[in-house]
Each structure stands twice: as structure tokens, then as C-alpha cells.
Design a protein that fits this description.
- By secondary structure, the protein is mostly helical.
- It has one domain.
- Helices cover 90% and strands 0% of the residues.
- The chain has two helices and no strands.
- The protein is elongated and about 70 Å long.
- The chain starts with a helix and ends with a helix.
């Protein structure tokens, strides 16, 4: 049983070493890029939300006329 526990410990250690190595490869954005991308995401979310709301109201109006 000791070998199984030792193997699991080695796998866990190896996994976290791999995670640490991958985190070193990440290129984190600077503040300016992060701000621009955040604004782009928020503005596109608001625009798409408005479009969906308008479509919903239009479909609801058509259904109210039919029913």
C-alpha cells in the first residue's frame, strides 16, 4: 500500500510543477490593454442586451396581436 500512496504523491507533485511551469508562460496584459478589452466586452454586452430586448418586445407584440 505504501507504493500506491507514494505514486499518488509523485503524481500530485508533478502536476503542481507542471502548473507552475505553465503559469510562467502566461503573458499578462498591461493595464491599458486590460482597460480597452474590458470596455469592449462591457459595451458589446450592453449592445447585444439591447438588441435582444428589442427582439423580445417585437416578438411579444406580434404574439399579442395573434392571440
Amino acid at each position: 500500500m505504501a507504493d500506491g500512496a507514494n505514486t499518488t504523491e509523485k503524481k500530485t507533485t508533478s502536476f503542481f510543477k507542471g502548473v507552475k511551469a505553465e503559469f510562467k508562460k502566461i503573458i499578462w496584459p498591461d493595464k491599458n490593454t486590460l482597460f480597452k478589452e474590458t470596455v469592449a466586452v462591457l459595451s458589446s454586452t450592453v449592445v447585444l442586451g439591447a438588441v435582444i430586448a428589442l427582439l423580445d418586445m417585437g416578438i411579444q407584440a406580434v404574439l399579442n396581436l395573434i392571440l
